[in-house]
Amino acid sequence: MSGKVRARDLDIPFEGTPGRWNAITDVPGVRVGHTTLIRDGKSDASDAVRTGVTVVVPKPRTEQEAVFAGWFRLNGYGELTGTAWIDEAGLLDGPVVTTNTHSVGVAHAAIAAYAHGRRLGEERWSLPVVGETWDGYLNDLWGDNVTSQHVLSALAEAQDGPVAEGSVGGGTGTIAYEFKAGIGTASRKVSSASDYTLGVLVQSNQGRREQLQIAGVPVGREFAEDRTKEPDSGSIIGIVATDAPLLPHQLKRLARRCALGLARSGSVSGHGSGDLFLAFSTANDGQVEGPKERRLAALPEDALNPFFAAVVSGLDESVINSLVAAETMSGLHHRRAVALPHDRLRSVLKRHGRLG
Hints:
- The protein has helices at 83-89, 104-118, 148-156, 248-264, 305-325, 342-351; strands at residues 31-39, 49-57, 67-76, 91-92, 96-100, 129-133, 175-176, 179-180, 183-191, 195-205, 235-242, 274-281, 329-330, 336-337.
- By secondary structure, the protein is of the alpha+beta class.
- The protein has one domain: L-amino peptidase D-ALA esterase/amidase (4-Layer Sandwich).
C-alpha cells in the first residue's frame, strides 16, 4: 500500500460507496502495475528523467482471453492505440498500458511480443492498447528512456489490492491544473438487480489552474502562485472496469460518461488536450470469443443509470486522488511542479461548507 494521503483522508466529499480499496482493483481479477523512472544526470538537468509505465490487466489470462470493451474520444490531441478494433469488434485483447507520448511505440512492441510468447507459437495477431500523456515539462521526452523491459516489469508486477497513486508509473511526470498530478483511482459499489463493482483509473495531465474545481468549489482561483504552463495542452487517459455483464455498446456508453466526470474537476477539454476513455467488462467469462454460438449475459439498457453515476463520481474522485497523492517535483531544466497544498485546500473547502 502506498501510504499516501487520498482525497477522502482530507474529508473531501464524493457521491457513492467505494469498494474495499477504493481502486480499480476492487473489480475482481483486475490488476495494476507501475514502473517509475526518476533519474538525474547533467547539472543543468537537461536529461532529467521523470516518466514511467502503468499497466492495467483486465483478467489473469488476459493474453489469451479477450473482454468486451468500448471507448470514447472527447478530444483527439492524443493517442490510444487499438481502438479501431475495439470499435469494430467490441473486444479488448490484452492489458492496457499508459506511458508518455514518445514511448507509445516501444510499449506497443513490448506488449505484442509478450502476447506472442505467452501464446506459445499460436498464430494470432495482437493489437495492444497503449495510451499516452505528454510529460515534457518535467521529463526529457526525447531521451528514449522507456524500454521494453520497463513495460514488461510493470506487467510482471501488476497486482490486485491498493494501487500506488500520484507521481508513479505513466503519471510520474504529469501535471494537472498546473499542480503535480499523476495516477489516480477510485471505485464504486453499484446496486442493480445484483451487486456489482465499477472501478476507474486515470493518468491525469489536463487543465489550467483557474479551472480546477473540487467538491463544486472553484479552488484553483485561490492559488495564483507557482504556475507551470499557459496553454491547456495536457491530456487524460481514463480506464473504467466493471464486473457487470455489459455489451460493447453499453461499455461505450460508460466511456462517454467519463467526460462528465472530467468536467466536475473543471476541465473544458481544450484544443491541445487528448482526452481518451476506455471501458471494459470482466463478465461473460469464456463466452466472449470462440467459433461456436455463445450464450451471453447482459444487463438491460434501463439498468445502466447507476453505472453512469458511478463512472462520473469515480472518475472525478480519481482525478482528485491523482492531485492529492502527488508531491512537489523538479525535473527537466530544473523546472518545478508544486503539489496541491492539503491544508490550504481544506481551508478553502471549509470556508465554503464543503468538507465531509
